[in-house]
Design brief:
With 288 residues, the chain is α/β, with parallel strands linked by helices. It folds into two domains: 233 residues, Spore Coat Polysaccharide Biosynthesis Protein SpsA, Chain A, CATH 3.90.550; 36 residues, no CATH class. The protein is built from nine helices and 13 strands. The strands form two sheets. Strands 1, 2, 3, 4, 5, 6, 7, 8 and 9 form a nine-stranded mixed sheet that branches. It has a four-stranded antiparallel sheet with strand order 10-11-12-13, with no helix packed on it. A hairpin with a 2-residue loop joins strand 12 and strand 13. The chain is globular and about 55 Å long. The termini are far apart.
Length: 288
């Protein structure tokens, strides 16, 4: 493994004792072994740090300053040629890093892009069935759907690229901070390659930041999202791009004014029908 690129996996942790061991074991049993694991304990008051110490990892402890600070600290510590951001309560298929790295190396891409299984909201899951390489800015935004799904954990990213572009997480934004980071990374990447078979399992526990956000009142949610909306508007004007492009097409059917059936068509021609958010039928069309 000495001649193979090192991957730095950065895991921000806050009171994740219930899930952290499972997350770390999931990395240790990856088919790709040249990995450094960086756990940034963001002021946990449970025994997350004690659990992390049971593993051969790089543990960094800080006072509670938020996930953006934790990820930035991880980036400063990382020495790998590639970095991946992983949430402590989520999982990966066991050949995830092998597939993601091989794809990036095959075409010298700054970013490789995986599929996602969203267990909380299955309608937001995305499977990747074909390998694409995109360089055009419009295609990069459409392929990743980053204007809507700004998750940073979808990507394996070349660290030298992040250093060159001086990309990190906005520590002044508390909601969807990874969307701001991901949009910039997608835009500036030399190319992006999709990776069939690499899947991120987004567990979305009740304690997660996004889960807590959904419990807020409408006005409070709008205020939390305001900095992100402002960033997107300014980014679109500066770079002359529509950040809401997507290779997914949604068709909604109403009954007495209520959207109760939705049809999702992917670029591959795969069609999924949802009834009240639950997939009830899957078909295949010849053309998108």
């Amino acid at each position: 493994m000495q001649n193979l690129p090192l991957i730095s996996v950065i895991i921000p942790v806050y009171n994740a004792a219930s899930y952290l061991a499972q997350c770390l074991e999931n990395i240790l049993y990856q088919t790709y072994k040249n990995i450094e694991i960086i756990v940034v304990d963001d002021g946990s008051v449970d025994n997350s740090a004690q659990i992390a110490k049971n593993y051969n990892i790089n543990l960094v402890k800080q006072t509670n300053r938020g996930v953006s600070v934790a990820r930035n600290v991880g980036l400063k510590v990382a020495i790998g040629e590639y970095v991946h951001f992983l949430d402590a309560d989520d999982l990966l298929n066991l050949d995830f890093y092998e597939r993601m790295l091989a794809a990036a190396l095959s075409c010298d891409a700054d970013i490789s892009f995986c599929g996602i299984i969203n267990e909380r909201e299955p309608i937001l899951s995305r499977t990747i069935e074909h390998k694409f390489i995109v360089l055009n800015k419009e295609d990069k935004f459409a392929l990743t759907n980053v204007g809507h799904d700004g998750y940073c954990f979808n990507y394996l990213i070349k660290r030298s690229f992040l250093v060159e572009k001086k990309l990190n997480f906005d520590e002044n934004v508390s909601t969807a901070e990874d969307l701001i980071f991901s949009m910039q990374a997608v835009f500036f990447a030399n190319k992006i390659i999709t990776v069939p078979g690499a899947v991120y399992y987004y567990k979305m526990r009740n304690q997660s930041a996004l889960a807590r956000l959904t419990k807020r009142g409408k006005k409070e949610q709008e205020e939390a999202w305001r900095p992100v909306k402002i960033f997107k508007e300014n980014f679109e004007k500066q770079h002359q791009i529509n950040t809401n492009q997507s290779l997914l097409k949604w068709t909604r059917y109403r009954f007495f004014g209520i959207h109760f059936i939705k049809k999702k068509t992917q670029v591959s021609g795969l069609v999924k029908w949802y009834l009240f958010g639950v997939c009830v039928l899957q078909t295949k069309e010849e053309h998108f």
